[in-house]
Amino acid sequence: MTNKKTRVILHAEDDPAHATIVEIALQRILGDVLLQQVDDGRAALDYLYRRGPFKNPAVSPRPDLILLDLRMPDVSGLEVLAIVKRDPELQAIPVVVLTTSSNEKDRSEARACGVDEYLTKPVDFNMFVHMIGEICVAWLQR
After folding, report:
1. Could you give the CA distance from residue 135 to residue 117 in angstroms, rounded to a whole number?
2. Which of 57, 85, 121, 124 has CB 3.0 to 4.6 Å from 114, enough for a Cys bridge?
3. Using CA atoms, how far apart are residues 83 and 6, in angstroms rounded to an integer?
4. Neighbours of 64 (CB within 10 A)
């Protein structure tokens, strides 16, 4: 019997509908993943730095992958990305930006901050679910 480690994904997304789609996709495709969802950039940083309600590493384990929306209130996804990629303790965690923005300026800024992958969310539900499954499988196998 193998002792397979449960993979952890931190998903920072302020749109509840998009958060639900990601949750559904992961349940369908990768049932053995622990999905930790937060609804803004400040909460993502609190999770990563184990502050506030995320102090206990048993409850808030280090993620193997970060899925990050760009446009969130208070602390933007770009700000979170820049902080993660500058921190030697966090920079090895792959960060995939999932955004509705196809703006080249946003893509360029994310690349400058060190994003591992930048994807525009499809409007079609099934395409979105398929995309989430593919990127999570690809990044969690590395």
Report:
1. 9
2. 85
3. 26
4. 19
Residues 138 and 96: their CA atoms lie apart, in Å, by 11
* Structural domain boundaries enclosing 42: 7-140
User: What's the token pair of residue 9?
Assistant: 């994904």
CA dist 89 and 73 (Å) reads 25
- Tens-place pLDDT, residues 90-128: 999 999 999 888 889 999 999 999 999 999 999 888 898
Indicate which CATH number applies to the domain containing 66: 3.40.50.2300
Q: Cβ(133)–Cβ(28) under 8 Å?
A: yes
Domain count across the chain: 1
**Residue 2 forms part of a structural domain:** no
Q: With respect to residue 44, please indicate whether it lies within any of the assigned structural domains.
A: yes
Strands 33-38 and 95-99: what pairing?
Answer: unpaired
pTM of the model: 0.92
